[in-house]
Write a structure and sequence with these properties.
This protein has 161 residues and is of the alpha/beta class. It has one domain: 3-Layer(aba) Sandwich (Rossmann fold). β4, α7 and β5 form a beta-alpha-beta unit. The two termini are 25 Å apart.
Length: 161
């Protein structure tokens, strides 16, 4: 059976250090554990690593350790990824000021990842943005993608039947 592929954006990894919301810390840690235990395949990009480099040294070092420990795979940003991210910007799906959000999405779409996991509700994990992203994807010959918060992947909020 094919494992579900997850692309983790920087907000998801940063949730481990959320000092105000312990549920985020728990969800982020559980997600990394599920990837480590091979329930899911986890991916990040060089863009994620670049964003982590901007974090305070203690957080940066801990994130790098957690990424290695979970066994997250690194995927490249190609020319096609850049072109796709530019289409999101051109169509005003993502504001130019938030170009890196468009880049994260394009990297995951190009590499045929099943889900992007993000706490970025403004530019990624909301129904309006998903719909617009997928309209660009379909127009340009890419598959649709779903963008979900970590709680949807870790099982929080599941309904008992």
């Amino acid at each position: 059976m094919k494992k579900i592929k997850l692309y983790l954006d920087t907000s998801t990894l940063g949730g481990i250090f959320d000092t105000e919301d312990t549920a985020r810390v728990s969800a982020a840690k559980n997600l990394l554990e599920l990837i480590k235990n091979k329930t899911y395949e986890g991916f990040i990009s060089y863009l994620t690593l670049l964003e982590i480099q901007r974090a305070p040294l203690k957080i940066k070092n801990e994130l790098e350790r957690l990424i290695a420990d979970a066994g997250l795979s690194l995927i490249e940003e190609t020319k096609e990824c850049i072109e796709l991210s530019e289409a999101y910007l051109h169509d005003k799906v993502i504001p130019v000021k938030y170009r890196d959000d468009a880049r994260h999405i394009a990297i995951a779409v190009y590499h045929q990842i099943d889900y992007i996991v993000s706490w970025n509700y403004r530019h990624m994990a909301n129904i309006t943005v998903r719909r617009l992203i997928n309209s660009v994807n379909l127009r340009l010959g890419f598959s649709p993608i779903d963008i979900v918060p970590p709680e949807e992947v870790t099982g929080y909020g599941e309904v008992e039947i």
